[in-house]
Amino acid sequence: MIERFLRRTAALALVMFAAALTLVVAVRLGEWENALANRRSVQQLSVADIAEGAVAFWIITVCGLAWHRRRMPMWRVWTRWAAFPGVYIALLKTFALVADRDQPLALLAMTGLLVACWALGELVVFVTTRPVTSALTASGWEIPFPTRGLKVRLCVREDRLVLDSLVSRRKRSRDVVAVPWTAMRSIELVEVEQEMTCQVVIHADGDIGRPRTFDVEPGPALHVIGTARELLIPVTEDVGRTALRMIRTRSERIEVAERRVWSNRRMRKRDLRPANWEFRTDSRPYILLLIGAFLLMPLYMLTMITLSVVTGSPELQKDWDTVGGLDSQYRMIVAGLGVVSVAFAYLAYRFCYKAFLDFMEGQDALEAFPEPPPPPPKIGTVSGSGKKRKKR
Question: Which residue, 26, 47, 165, 373, has most beta carbons within 10 Å?
Fold first, then answer.
């Protein structure tokens, strides 16, 4: 527990350092530009000014870190999200210095900043996943392992073994092939004596699973046999032994499920889809989360109005027009805003967040069992009529 707390603390410190570093560099580039332009009367852009505009990105970053609290490889993505506002301002200042002030050294500073942000993201993942200790093995954190001679990445999660990056390194966490512990029959580290080809089926291109193949060169490899898949994953000797130990630790005391996940689940409305529906493992409906965030705007307004009155902050009261308290008309507005907030919060949960979670549950099942759910049986009706057949 202490080791995981220290790793997470160090990772969060690196995320905050990446965000602060980009803000400081952006401010320094702005000061450089003003000095060259002799803008003594212009108010300098401060760190606080940029931070005010970056709050929305940082809120998303915090939500992303909480959402992926166990998927440590995703923390590199959120590190770059935290750094994006500062990088964006620094990029604008760099263009101004190069194009208007003829200062090509600004490009060097910008390049160094981008390299630093990339390195900090990688360092966050390294701090949280290396070295692989017994505490990490017993935890539910996702631990990535490199494969031998392939761009495919092997990830050991809390409940499954995953191969991702089957198409491109830019599509990590997509095009996923998974073997849950409940579907795993055996795994062992074997020695491949001659070059072989491993074929897997993914649904990145539609409802019809398409096979993808990768070559397995002679050497050590993990041979995984599941109820729906068989994989041969080339790894080094050290990686193979470490991954094998972690997989066996996490999968012990798990009963093998003989039936497919789809058959274990009660049919839901979202499963009653037309025959041409595309079951894609690279599909992530993040637009639902954006719509949900939009529906929470009334709740945000109500919260800010309440804070302006409770805290007595002059700035908040000026921004939300609550100077001197709330008159009777404003109280009616606040009451109506409260009703709308409750209704919109329910809509956001029911049709956005819950729908997103249900969709991702189906994605997890499809990644593990490369077959879409069977279409619902049509019993007791005549095709196209919508009427029940009469019994004779």
Answer: 26
